[in-house]
Design brief:
With 343 residues, this protein is mainly α. It contains 17 helices and 2 strands. Helices cover 70% and strands 3% of the residues. It has a two-stranded antiparallel ribbon.
Length: 343
């Protein structure tokens, strides 16, 4: 009881009232004095049964404290949520420790997803918990925790009927799964996130998710899937034009290299070069790095004069924006036919 009071910031008397109602309804049991757990046969109430104020109050308390503790760890990660909570930024380690310490209570509350009247708060709770999960190695590595969070968050968002929050939760879950190396869950989450972002026509989020899918597919050597995602990204970004289009073409060339198709990579990087030339505002560093990579492919293919021209152009772009990369370009322009490329 005291723990829930501390977690929620509410008086123990108010918490006691909520818990007493849950005890009377047979939804929780007292495991030892002052400690409670969901009963084994408890099931979420059908959303069609109407609003249940007991559950709504409990979810509200936990969501409030989770948002206060977890989301403020990284306020920028809360972009897209309709009610950003301010306040001091706590230690990310402490936020993750809080999540781990109260995991049992959080899972019990998340299991209420699909219950009328609580889904908006459950979505906010899930969003907050994804932030603290991403910040903690042990939470990221816990596949059971991530799947529970993903399933409950998605169910809550679908019941709420908010496609923007649904897409955001799916993307967040996919990103954290990818960070954990769980490519199966990452793909599942990101593919559905992509579909939902398409439904709401958010071009920026579509591009972000496509980039993540390229990374997930490429990491597992599924180059045909990576190419599908990269081609879709090029189509999306060509409508925007400029450096965005050039970046997408650059990524497509990188996938071609990974797939063992360097000749195709050269074609797409040459298109990216043209797109960078026309970009307004210019992106000299990204353009210069592209020319370095393009020159390396030409050099490997024996087109030494073409490679040297690309590197001279890269040096001119990088000299005022990145000293380290400019030094690398200088080393490349000093090469002579027959020299090996530096690593």
């Amino acid at each position: 009881m005291e723990l829930l009071s501390v977690m929620s910031g509410e008086a123990e008397e108010e918490i006691a009232t909520v818990v007493a109602r849950l005890l009377a309804a047979g939804e929780v049991a007292e495991t030892r004095p002052g400690w409670f757990a969901p009963v084994d046969d408890a099931r979420p109430v059908d959303g069609r049964a109407g609003h249940d104020p007991r559950r709504s109050l409990l979810v509200t308390h936990l969501a409030r404290v989770a948002v206060r503790v977890a989301v403020t760890v990284a306020p920028q990660e809360h972009a897209g949520w309709p009610a950003v909570h301010g306040g001091p930024v706590p230690d990310p380690v402490e936020a993750a420790r809080w999540t781990r310490a109260h995991r049992g209570h959080l899972v019990a509350v998340l299991s209420l997803a699909g219950t009328a009247g609580v889904d908006e708060r459950l979505c906010e709770l899930a969003w907050a918990l994804w932030v603290s999960t991403s910040a903690d190695l042990r939470l990221r590595a816990d596949a059971a925790w991530r799947r529970t969070l993903a399933d409950c968050g998605e169910r809550a968002a679908r019941t709420w009927g908010n496609p923007v929050i649904l897409a955001g939760l799916l993307e967040r879950g996919g990103r954290v799964a990818a960070e954990a190396g769980d490519d199966v869950l990452a793909e599942s989450q990101l593919v559905r996130a992509l579909s939902t972002w398409h439904q709401v026509r958010d071009e920026a989020r579509i591009a972000t998710v496509l980039r993540m899918l390229v990374e997930v597919f490429g990491r597992s050597g599924r180059w045909h899937r990576a190419l599908d995602a990269a081609f879709e990204l090029v189509g999306e970004r060509r409508r925007v034009g400029g450096a965005d289009s050039a970046d997408a073409l650059t990524l497509l060339g990188e996938v071609m290299v990974g797939a063992g198709r360097p000749e195709a990579a050269v074609r797409y990087w040459e298109q990216a070069d043209l797109a960078f030339r026309d970009a307004d505002p210019p992106s000299p560093r990204r353009h210069g790095l592209l020319l370095v990579a393009l020159g390396r492919l030409h050099w490997t293919g024996g087109a030494h004069p073409v490679a040297l021209r690309a590197w001279h152009r890269a040096l001119a772009l990088l000299v005022d924006v990145d000293d380290e990369q400019a030094d690398r370009a200088r080393a490349l322009v000093r090469l002579r036919p027959g020299d090996d490329l530096p690593a």
